[in-house]
Specification:
By secondary structure, the protein is an all-alpha fold. The chain is built from 23 helices and no strands. The protein is globular and about 70 Å long.
Length: about 500
């Protein structure tokens, strides 16, 4: 109870909110925001091409340009992930977030003017800049959250990243309704709404504190760290928190913060990297990203009338944010492992049933709505499991000297996979039809099995204790540190 009261004593809640609206909210909005205006953007591309060349686009040109618009967001995210260490190391967490918001505002300005300039190339540039901002912003958002949260509330605080991401998706779906901004003449406006929140972040964030762990461990400023803790959590001596940081600093003082390449060579962090790599690739290939970006196409192919699709996708957004909030309340009680392996297991079963229902859609009028129900169930277990808990786990399993490099590596993988999916999925669904979802089912099953057999529980442990648990993992009687074990510790 004492830990919960800390949230209301200082500026912690305000900082969490400001970080959220400029961090994962932006990513969630841009991933989903393209779904509703997609027919209008494709019509704009077609019209622009015809006005330029007095002929319709040949062959698959329209599909190729549309795939570029989708995938360039992830390409930008990949470059943004590369920049995390540079920005956060040179500028600190707070200034890096502010600079990232400026990039997001620039992307929105280019997107807004693309329609008037009659340039689909500007849409591609804007999407790439928005992706760069998202790739940089999501990682720094999670790092910042992890470094301002007390151990007892670490899961809850870092889970707000997933909640704001879900809120961003819901906002995009709501504003994409034809009754609000989802009209052909406003498609460029609906894609620029997040810039207003980025502007709020630029104005307010300078008055809020820097991350205490960054100040103490990386900058060596203990007085500034204590002042930041008091600003965040209210008055107090914070002796326990300072001692925990001091112990972590002592454990890593012999080694400078690692680069991504050095971290890859570090055997003591090998299981952590393997774990996050598998989790993020399973998340990306679970099908959630494709639901967010191609929801309109998926439901249309399932046989749901076009005039009902936007309302169904709005329902998906409401489901996602409610589930994310409940996951935030549940994670410190249930732990991380059950949320991961249980979520992946149900998600795999959902995709198998979706594949069956899509092949039966012509046999009955209710099959398309069963597909919609299964996708809702999939979202509940994704957001209440792997999707919600991934950010928390990523902040917990790497000590301070490894954390930024780890976020760079994980970000590169995450955005690379998303870029390939965005480019390939329109062609994949044309070639495989409903059977493309079998790929997602297999990836979810892989995640379930790996988490069940290998992931240690991290709830309520210090970062050094979690590191020791990963060092104890064995495979065929041997750990990466060359120590023989009789069994795997969980």
């Amino acid at each position: 109870m004492e830990s919960w009261q800390q949230l209301t004593r200082g500026n912690a809640l305000l900082l969490i909110f400001i970080l959220g609206i400029g961090g994962s909210f932006q990513s969630g909005y841009h991933i989903t925001g393209l779904s509703s205006p997609s027919p209008f953007i494709q019509s704009f591309i077609n019209t622009t091409w015809y006005e330029r060349y007095a002929a319709p686009p040949p062959g698959r040109t329209l599909t190729t340009i549309w795939s570029l618009i989708v995938s360039m967001y992830a390409v930008g995210g990949l470059f943004g992930a590369f920049s995390v260490k540079c920005f956060s190391g040179l500028l600190g967490r707070k200034k890096a977030v502010i600079c990232n918001s400026v990039i997001a505002i620039a992307a929105s300005v280019i997107m807004l003017t693309s329609k008037w300039a009659k340039s689909y190339e500007m849409i591609i540039v804007a999407r790439m800049l928005a992706g760069y901002s998202a790739g940089l912003g999501v990682s720094i958002h999670l790092i910042y959250l992890g470094e301002i949260s007390p151990r007892q509330l670490r899961g809850v605080v870092t889970m707000t990243s997933a909640t704001f991401g879900s809120l961003g998706k819901l906002s995009a779906q709501l504003l994409g309704l034809s009754e609000i901004l989802g009209r052909e003449e406003l498609w460029n406006v609906v894609l620029c709404v997040p810039a207003c929140l980025s502007l709020v972040q630029v104005v307010v964030l300078p008055f809020l504190p820097e991350a205490p762990r960054y100040l103490f461990i990386e900058k060596g400023e203990d007085k500034a760290c204590k002042k930041a803790l008091q600003s965040l959590w209210g008055q107090g001596d914070f002796k326990q928190e300072m001692e925990e940081m001091l112990a972590e600093q002592a454990a890593i003082e012999s080694a400078a913060p690692k680069s991504p390449l050095l971290l890859l060579r570090d055997q003591s962090a090998r299981w952590q990297l393997i774990t996050m790599s598998i989790i993020y690739i399973c998340n990306q290939l679970s099908g959630m990203s494709m639901i967010s970006t191609f929801a309109f196409d998926i439901f249309w192919r399932a046989g749901i009338p076009k005039d009902q699709i936007r309302y169904i996708t709005l329902g998906l957004g409401v489901t996602e944010i409610i589930t994310s909030i409940f996951c935030g309340l549940l994670i410190e009680h249930a732990g991380r492992r059950p949320l991961f392996w249980g979520g992946y297991g149900v998600m795999s079963a959902c995709w198998v049933l979706v594949t069956i229902m899509l092949n039966l859609k012509d046999c009955s009028t209710w099959c398309p709505y069963v597909v919609a129900g299964l996708i809702v169930l999939f979202i509940i277990f994704f957001c209440g499991g792997p999707g919600g808990a991934s950010g928390t786990l990523n902040s917990e399993i790497f000590i301070q000297s490894n954390r930024v490099a780890a976020f760079v590596l994980v970000g590169i993988q995450r955005w690379s996979v998303l870029a390939v999916l965005g480019l390939v999925f329109p062609f994949l669904i044309d070639a495989l039809h409903s059977y493309c979802f079998v790929i997602f089912a297999c990836m979810c099953l892989l995640g379930c099995l790996y988490i069940f057999f290998f992931l240690p529980e991290t709830k309520g442990k210090t970062l050094l204790e979690i590191e020791d648990d990963f060092k104890a993992i064995t495979l065929c009687g041997k750990s990466f540190l060359g120590q023989s074990r009789l069994e795997t510790r969980f």
